[in-house]
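call fold(seq) -> tokens
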Amino acid sequence: MDWLTAENIIAVGTAVIGVLASVAVLWYERRVPRRKRLGYRVQLDTPIGSNGVEGQPNVRLGLFNDDEEMADATLVLLRFENIGSQAITAEDYDSGGPYGLTIRFEQRAIRGTAVTLPAGSSHMMGHFSRPPTPLRHEEGLLHVPRVPLNKGKHYKLLVLLNGGATEAPIEVVGDLVDGDVTETRSTTLDDTPPLFSRPARLLTVLLTLCVITLSSLVMVRGETSSPMGCAQGKLKVVGSTAFRPVAEELAAKYEQDCPGSEITVDARGSTAGIRELVAAGEAAKNGSPAVLTLSDGPQPGADSDARLTENRIAVTAFAMVLNDEVSLENLSTDTIRKLYTGEIRNWSRLGGPDLPVVLVSRNSNSGTRGVFQRRVLHGFEPAASSADCRRKLDPGAEVLRCELDSTQQVLDTVAELPGAIGYSELRSGTDLKGLHRVSLDGHAPALDGISDSAYPFREIEYAHTYGRPPADSLASSFLNYAMRGSGQDVVRTHGHLPCYTPEGLKICAS
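ret:
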């Protein structure tokens, strides 16, 4: 039982505590009923006349001094707020009468009342004046209507009284069905509320101790083990040449992070990679072979092999690239189709220089070519009419077209030949001189915001396996590393959009 180590026990224990805590919270949310709560507090109780708590005199001017009733007047400000988790309706009040609440001011008589509402709550004012139960007072009693309150909403009552001193008892009478009316208090600068409840603090301390203990054990033992999810063995990665730089860096970083693994990248085109994977699978005696194929797009529907498993890795944008002698910056997809059918053979017809059109394409093994045919041409490219991209072998061909083996060869040739046009993976066409990228239908080739863009020349990069490799195999581990692990940073660095990101999922999951 090699797994029965102190680190694993603590790690599993920490996970169990986290799961139990989550289940407990879920159970509490579903099983424990949420009570409705109406909170109130006295925000102000101050004398206007000479009737403070200590009977001290004061200075009064204007109305406060001219009216004899102001000699023992007081002002009280009450705040009512929905502090529960649900809205309070008029039917929720349980006071035994037509009003929602009754406020009793002992030893004092009410002389006036005003309602104040927060900004944006003027619609609530009607609840205080609507018959047959408008806000009213008599002697020391203030009758408050059944005012609906959404969660977190509040109102205030400013009451002018006389006949008694400040801090005389104030009682709020009333209740809520399946709830309560409770007195609260404001938080002063010296009363900082706790950020977490006591159970939350205990759980946090417990989890922290588990993590510290686990870290201490690893440091004390001083062993350098492979990261979680690593596997050993050999793996061959074949397929897309456009995705080759990503695959090579992923392989190098995985081997560095996971000693004992050996990953070889031999990219010669998506179609060739699929064939090699199928051959390796048919030759394998036990299960899935240690071969992984990267392809630009899924298997063609008519030729798809049910024995292969597709895994979506990233979204790749491709671009049309044009020799700098032709200064056009935008082409419509309809124009691209006319260029490839030979209907347009000279750039002068599009407002460009008097140069013949040269189509620099990929061979039939290329996944990039498949994407171009699916997404832009909506059909097949014409047959090759040149072996060196300079001279026609077939004088009857509508247009000069050649085929090359890699993306890099396409870029080099387009940069060299005036009038040449080709296509490549977006990142590959950023650092070369002699050519430039072309917008399609007014949409520039870019990954930023591609999920909401109408740019057509894009595709999902797939990783194919023969069947489903074992969970502990190097193929499964490398796939997980590229799709969900730190390999996503490598994918993003090379100008691709990982599928397992919020924006990537919009495309990969559709």
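The mean pLDDT is 84.
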